[in-house]
Amino acid sequence: MKFAEEFKNAVTPRAALLVIGVLALQLLFITSYVGALHNPKPKDVPFGVVAPQPAAAKQLAQQLDKLPGSPLDARVVSDAKTARNQVLNREIDGALVFKAKGAQDTLYVASGGGTVLASALEGLATTIDAQQQRTVRTVDVAPASAQDFDGLSAFYLVVGWCVGGYLCASIMSISAGSKPASPQRAAIRLGSLAVFAIVGGIGGSLIIGDSILGALPGSFWGLAGLGALITLAVGAITLALEELTGVVGIGLAVLLIVIAGNPSAGGAFPLPMLPPFWEAIGPWLPPGAGTWAARSIAYFKGNDLTQSLLVLSAWAVVGIAATLLVSGLREKRRGARATAPTAGSHAGPAVGGAGSTAGPSA
Question: What is the rounded CA–CA span in Å between residue 192 and residue 173?
Answer without folding.
Answer: 12
